[in-house]
Amino acid sequence: MNPAPPEFRSARPPAVPLSHLDTLPDAVASDGHAFRSPASASPLGDGRISEVPIEDLDPRPRKTPKYFRGSRRTQRLTGVRIVGTGAHVPHRIVTNEELEVRHGFEPGWIERRTGILERRYAPEDQATSDLCLPAARDALHAAGLRAADIDLLVVGTFTPDQACPSTANLVQHRLGLDAPAFDVQAACSGFMYALVTAAQYVANGNAKHALVIGADLNSRIVNPTEMTVAPLFGDGAGAVVLSAGGPDQGLVRYQLGSDGGGGPLLEIPHGGTRHPLTPEAVAEGRHYLSMDGRTVFKWAVEAIEHSIGYVLETEGLHPSEVAGYFLHQANIRILDHAAGCLGLDPQRVWNNLSRYGNTSAASIPLCLDEAVRKGRVEPGDALLLCGFGAGLTWGTGVLRW
Question: Beta 209-217 vs 152-156: how paired, if at all?
Fold first, then answer.
């Protein structure tokens, strides 16, 4: 597959051939959105999800979590709306086959265990801010705004260009913004944390137009020879522009949470003030991302089940009333679990995991941008956004479009 030309807006690849669909779970396709069987396809032929009976998809009673220490606190943040979205991924496509040949990984293991077929890697001369810029310009263009209109920039990332200054500062300068700019570090929940933070400013009238970016360059922080970690991650950036909205628009119900007791499960051990980076640490690979994959997986499925379930219940929404689910793209088995235990219509769970892998803070805005560009989001729709990851952190919210 040839990389997209430089002028292509966000360098998205074409859909994976249909011959690949039988290698993924039946409920999910590989072309960036949920697979619609002929029986459930919209009779209008307009690409929208059709309204099909889903009485048999009611949520199952939730079991008491063993790993997820959830919260009963939720908030409401309205009067805000997304007026533009954007996305960017590097041109270079790295397939499973390439990783298998280069590093001797077990053939077929990546796809069987994760649902990932390929991911994007940035070239050596690019950093996270370089991915942020085209995504931000994309979102500004979609919103019909200029850089001069933005008065706040928040970037969610855990792979900054450097420890200081913040990646947001670098993006602010290169975009020519007259605006405060800062990073939010919540790993794979970073976009949700950044979105809620920026929305507070807009809702309170302290910002007129806020630019929110979720971006990570994960290929630089994973050990390329570690089969259980490296193949999961890819590079990318997604952005949204927030402006004032109606009283019923915005995050009608949301929850941010953290459990620092789970920090050692998913961490970069060295490189901070606790363990400064040394030649010995680099030689041992202590500057790479370390993950207890089995435990993190168990925590993640409980985090999705309980945080989404509680947010929907608190808002009084049945899963069928949500037009689209935009969950962090970590593993196809996690997405399938969410659809099963919560009674979600799998047609409404957005999925681009097979093409991009886990892009951390970029995964939710990448999905959201695809849905908007395909005309799959309409005014008044209730969208469910859910990010979860290192920290341990999570952010779940119902966004009324």
Answer: parallel
